[in-house]
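Hi R.,

Here's the chain you asked about this morning:
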Amino acid sequence: MATKEYCSSVADELEYWSKRLHELSSKFDKVPSIDKYKVLTHIEDLHILMTEVDDRLCDLMTSCSTAESIEEEEVRPAV
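And the predicted structure, written out as tokens:
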């Protein structure tokens, strides 16, 4: 049960940060190209960070599903 709560908590936090990063990226997308040139390296870093957070969220969901399956097997009595 603790694993499920931990996974849910971390997933919620990662989803929150992912949403915030995507909102920020959308704001940069609306800025004219000439102005973006000045902060291009920061925008690229933002896109890298967004990808890392999204990848981590996907990995978490996969890992948590596996951990929950293992916990359920351990709780079930052997037949």
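The chain has a mean pLDDT of 84.

Let me know if you need anything else.
M.
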